């Protein structure tokens, strides 16, 4: 092989190496650019994710605040309802008590008017002679008196015990003193007019005489 041919071949090899180097550098440059683009894309995606997380957190916070406000309003309404129910219950009890008191006052006023009738029955029957007690008229009057007293007892009207009891100013009205050896001093020895109670309330005090 001649000298010129060797030289030409060496030049061609160098040119091929040069072209390969340029191509490799170009490839590396493109790879670097693609890498930068990938970093930017990753940063952008991360930024979007952060913004999404912030929006989600903000939305959750708003929902929680809205729920807390709603729960507070419900608690206030429940408290208001409970207060109104308690007030109504107190009003109902107070009304029933007042109604019962008014009824008792009215009943007491009416029952007081029957007491003189009972007194007259007892006085009349007490004066009947022993031999006349079997007469039809007397028996009929006794039956009416018993029926009247039964009905009075049904409405909780009861006579006040007097003779033999210690004087009680809440039940008895002492109008005289009686000389007697049968009872101790301060004990009721005589009942002048019978007293009565209605539902444990005195509608008429017993008029009595107390032993000296």
Show unreliable segments: none
**Any guess at the CATH architecture of the domain at 156-212?**
Roll
Mean pLDDT: 78
Major beta-sheet overview: 3 strands, antiparallel
CATH class of the domain at 156-212 reads: Mainly Beta
Residue share in β-strands: 5-15%
Number of strands: 6
CATH superfamily of the domain at 156-212: Head domain of nucleotide exchange factor GrpE
User: First CA to last CA: what distance?
Assistant: 177 Å
CATH topology of the domain at 156-212: Nucleotide Exchange Factor Grpe, Chain A, domain 2
Q: What percent of the residues sit in helical stretches (DSSP H or I)?
A: 55-70%
Q: Write out the strand line-up for the largest beta sheet, numbering strands in chain order.
A: 1-4-5
Q: Per the principal axes of the C-alpha atoms, what is the gross shape? A: rod-shaped
Order of helices and strands: HHEEEEEE
Assign the structural class, choosing from mainly alpha, mainly beta, alpha/beta, alpha+beta, or little secondary structure: alpha+beta
Number of alpha- plus pi-helical segments:
2
Taking Cα atoms only, what radius of gyration do you get, to the nearest Å? 58 Å
Features:
Nucleotide Exchange Factor Grpe, Chain A, domain 2; alpha+beta; 67% helix; 3-stranded antiparallel β-sheet; 6 strands; 3-stranded mixed β-sheet; 212 residues
Q: What do these coordinates show?
A:
- This protein is an alpha+beta fold.
- It has a domain at 156-212: Head domain of nucleotide exchange factor GrpE (Nucleotide Exchange Factor Grpe, Chain A, domain 2), CATH 2.30.22.
- It contains two helices and six strands, in the order ααββββββ.
- Strands 1-4-5 form a three-stranded antiparallel beta sheet. A three-stranded mixed beta sheet has the order 2-6-3, with no helix packed on it.
- Strand 4 (196-198) and strand 5 (201-204) form a beta hairpin.
- The termini are far apart.
- The mean pLDDT is 78.
């Amino acid at each position: 092989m001649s000298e010129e041919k060797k030289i030409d071949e060496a030049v061609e090899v160098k040119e091929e190496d040069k072209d390969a180097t340029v191509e490799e550098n170009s490839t590396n440059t493109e790879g670097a650019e693609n890498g930068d683009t990938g970093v930017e894309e990753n940063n952008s995606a991360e930024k979007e994710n952060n913004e999404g997380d912030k929006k989600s957190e903000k939305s959750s916070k708003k929902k929680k605040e809205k729920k807390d406000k709603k729960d507070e309003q419900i608690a206030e309404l429940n408290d208001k309802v409970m207060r109104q129910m308690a007030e109504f219950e107190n009003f109902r009890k107070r009304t029933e008590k007042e109604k019962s008191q008014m009824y008792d006052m009215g009943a007491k006023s009416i029952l007081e008017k029957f007491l003189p009738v009972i007194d007259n029955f007892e006085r009349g029957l007490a004066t009947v002679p022993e031999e006349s007690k079997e007469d039809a008229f007397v028996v009929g009057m006794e039956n009416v008196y018993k029926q009247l007293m039964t009905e009075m007892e049904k409405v909780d009207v009861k006579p006040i015990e007097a003779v033999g009891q210690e004087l009680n100013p809440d039940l008895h009205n002492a109008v005289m003193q009686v000389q007697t050896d049968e009872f101790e001093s301060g004990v009721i020895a005589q009942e002048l007019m019978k007293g009565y109670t209605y539902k444990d309330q005195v509608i008429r005090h017993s008029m009595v005489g107390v032993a000296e």
